[in-house]
């Protein structure tokens, strides 16, 4: 059965509503200028290093909020595939990399190479979104392929098709690409680093990130695990009764107990 909405995706639901709410509050309180990063003057002159931890809290314009919310809604399939616990573990384990790597690389490597031309990093959790997009690209198979082309006559009477071959997943990348191209070049840097972090997580390159899991009580998974275990035991019992295996095992156990009991009685009588 195909589920819609945020069914079995509570963490994705929290992310979507969190992005919308924080961006709305930043606009309402007129504090959007506290979130983006300019290496100079924010880091070099003002020493506002707290921006390294807060720049992913919200987006600063409504277009990016819309594209990010719709992209995360499409990527809810990753949480359904992995389960809520692994999905939440992925977000927490990769958060230090997606938060610190973009501004640090911008300040220490990209800005000096560009001759101080690239100085700006836009606000918003674009690296987190592209780290999720890397998992979607690797884990979700496509259903069909199609080609955008027109027949071009080649040498001879036959025709050969030229063009771009796409898959059924191609449209899922359009909205994230809008985010990557929204405030060039800073948005593309954040998106590229997020994709690399997601790929490194999948290859288990990040130290300890791929195998770490949040405790079950954090997401309320303990009771659900017990219910699944009791359901499995009940189903196994019903299957055993239906096939006669359990009755046969009980009969064999009774026969074994009868033979042992007879031997004990013989020794007692002697």
Q: What's the arrangement of strands in the largest beta sheet?
A: 1-2
Radius of gyration: 29 Å
| Structure classification | mainly alpha
The parts where pLDDT drops under 50 for at least 5 residues are none
User: CATH topology, which one?
Assistant: Rhomboid-like fold
Tell how many strands the DSSP assignment holds: 4
Order of helices and strands: HEHHHHHEHEEHHHH
Number of helices: 11
Distance linking N and C termini: 69 Å
The CATH C-level class name: Mainly Alpha
Helix content: 55-70%
| Gross CATH architecture | Up-down Bundle
- How many structural domains does the protein architecture include? 1
* Largest sheet descriptor: 2 strands, antiparallel
User: Mean pLDDT across all residues, rounded?
Assistant: 82
DSSP strand (E) fraction? 5-15%
Broad shape: globular
Subcellular location: Membrane
GO molecular function: serine-type endopeptidase activity
Protein name: Peptidase S54 rhomboid domain-containing protein
Membrane topology: Multi-pass membrane protein
Give a written overview of the molecule:
GO terms for molecular function: serine-type endopeptidase activity. It comes from Hortaea werneckii EXF-2000. Helices cover 60% and strands 8% of the residues. The chain contains 11 helices and 4 strands. The protein has helices at 10-28, 39-43, 51-54, 62-74, 76-82, 84-113, 126-139, 174-180, 186-202, 222-243, 245-269; strands at 37-38, 120-121, 145-153, 159-167. The strands form 2 sheets. It has a two-stranded antiparallel sheet with strand order 1-2. It has a two-stranded antiparallel ribbon with strand order 3-4. β3 and β4 (159-167) form a beta hairpin.
